[in-house]
Amino acid sequence: MSDKPRVFVTRTIPKAGLDRLREVCEVEVWPKPKPPRRDTLLDKARGCAGLVTMLSDKVDETVLTAAGDDLKVVANYAVGYNNIDVAACREHGVAVGNTPDVLTDATADVAVLLMLAAARSFTPAAASVRDGGWKTWAPMDHLGMELAGKTVGVIGLGRIGRAFADRCHGGWGMKVLYTANSPKPDADRDLGAKHVELPELLANSDFISLHCPLTEATAGLIDANALHQMKTTAVLVNTARGEVIDQDALHTALSGGKIFAAGLDVTTPEPLPTDSPLLELPNCVVLPHIGSATVHARSGMALMAADNVLAGLRGDPLPHGV
Ligand code: DGY
């Protein structure tokens, strides 16, 4: 048995990160496409010094207790870390890391992709070509919304929210409203952005994009009441976390014409069951949580997670700690 510290990685991640870990650690990688079941995670965590976890792995008191006293670090392979009980980790003396920045552009791009796809009825339009529904050029079919000069509301102007706002302002000259814990003078100066309260953003935005973390305060933030305050022409985009939206209320709003369309990269649960009523709506585009799914972002995330683990094992502050 090796005397190297043991690290369990809950899914196959890019090789560069695994190679970096293997220089120092005994690494076990969960090889299957689906996450390890809860009992498997508890079993594999036992005696580990480090865990590399995905957003689908819940890391809580039970996992920490199962892992035992050797556990020094949990490196989440994501920028979001709502799957980790950070307070419990602190109590156990376990450092927690994430992977910010490297996925900012990739995720902001997917928000733009969804904004355009939802605004221009991409899903039903493309489907009509494949299924023969498209008979001839039609003056009244698939009429969508334009972006140029419109107002975009960004809920959460952190790194990804800002990159999304930059694209909207630079690409289409959109006016930017945003909510955030405090005003962002850079955004106000560079984009003419305006820090507002949520009701003002909801009522005045043509496009609304969610970029807030999932917390107690943001769970269910976009509920029936919030949807009711939006314009009937509004397009809602979510690349944050599915739980920020009340999906039943969203279905009611989309099917009843209370808002124009939605584009979701994240849902609850993930995957969305194939019989979910949301998937029957022509004005709802749903992607399988691909915000950070570029070669560049995922490779960078792997290296960052590895660096977090290695620092945690040495007892150093994590380079990307939360
Ligand atoms: C994240 O990093 O939090 C994304 O949701 C997944 O890459």
TrEMBL record:
Say which species the protein is native to. Answer: Alienimonas chondri
The D-isomer specific 2-hydroxyacid dehydrogenase NAD-binding domain extends over 113-291
Record flagged with keyword Oxidoreductase? yes
Q: What is this protein called?
A: 2-hydroxyacid dehydrogenase
- Matching CDD domains: GDH
Signal sequence range: none
Q: Which GO terms describe its molecular function?
A: oxidoreductase activity
Q: Which family does it belong to?
A: Belongs to the D-isomer specific 2-hydroxyacid dehydrogenase family.
